Amino acid sequence: MKKVIYRAIEKKDYLEVQNLICISFGLDSYVSDSKTLKLITKQYLCSCLTEQTYNKVAEIDGKIIGVIMGASDHAKHTVINILNALKSLFYSLQIILFHRKACDSQGNIHKAYEELIRDHRNQYDGVLTLFIVDKKFQGLGIGKELLSGVQNYWNVKGTNSSYLYTDDTCNYGFYEHMRFTRVNEKKIDILRNGDKTKMDVYLYEN
Q1: Are strands 195-205 and 181-192 parallel, antiparallel or unpaired?
Q2: What is the three-class DSSP state of 126?
Q3: How far apart are the C-alpha atoms of 11 and 16, rounded to whole Å?
């Protein structure tokens, strides 16, 4: 395998990261309209950039093949966080005003997340906000390296307990391998590729 470079995310990476989000999370199976899909991926990335206080991308030959973002309550937010919060709000308003019907499934997922953490929120001082490794590069230790990086960051910041959301379409077994524990789960109804189906969403802690 060619050399993997791990570095902080830059603005020039945003489009590639948006594509990773769309493909890895299968967003096109929930939203068929390309304009709506573009707005959702932009809003999602901005929301992650708003919350994060730590980030890294994995790069091979100039191509982004992995990304991770996390946050600690013991770290300060910056102007970048504020600017992305404003962008996230702007994209959210556009989605609500012009594309709301197409986003019902995503809304159900986020509602489930809130219900999962409702009785646990106060026990965490860290969060994993985004974690993706391109499927073509999984199993090569890249995900482990990215996750170990944010865990080391939490240790340095004195973060005692962190959490993440995932679902049954993702490789949630990887988190269990990395010593995360599932503490809550919920089954929800979603619309995927025009068909009603079920999804299990999970809350893990470390």
Answers
A1: antiparallel
A2: strand
A3: 10
CA separation (Å) from 141 to 101, 107, 171, 203?
39, 33, 14, 24
The residue with tokens 């809350």 is 203
Q: How far apart are CA 181 and CA 194, in angstroms?
A: 33
Q: Contact 65/7 with Cβ under 8 angstroms?
A: no
Report residue 55 as tokens: 């980030």
Radius of gyration of the chain (CA): 17
Task: Write out pLDDT tens, residues 82-116.
Answer: 999 999 999 888 877 766 665 666 677 878 889 99
Residue 66 DSSP label: E
Among candidates 118, 119, 84, 107, which has minimal Cα distance to 190?
107
Question: What is the pairing mode between strands 162-167 and 126-133?
Answer: parallel
Cβ atoms < 10 Å from Cβ of 8: 9
